[in-house]
Amino acid sequence: MKRALFTVLSVVIGVLVVGGSVALFSAGAQEPDPIAAKVVGKAKTPQGELPHAELDLSIYPNSSPAVPPPAVSDRLAQSESESQQWPFYTPSTNLELPAHSLVTIRITQYDSGGQIYNPYLAKVVGTVDGSATYDGEKKTGIDPNTVGHTFTIHQFPESTQPYLYVNIPVPMNGANAPTDANGYPKDPHVIEFSFITGEPGQYIWNCEFPCGTGYVFFGGPMQQRGWMSGTVTVV
Ligand SMILES: [Cu+2]
Question: In this predicted model, what pLDDT tens digit does every residue of 64-79 receive, in sequence order?
Answer without folding.
Answer: 999 999 999 999 999 9
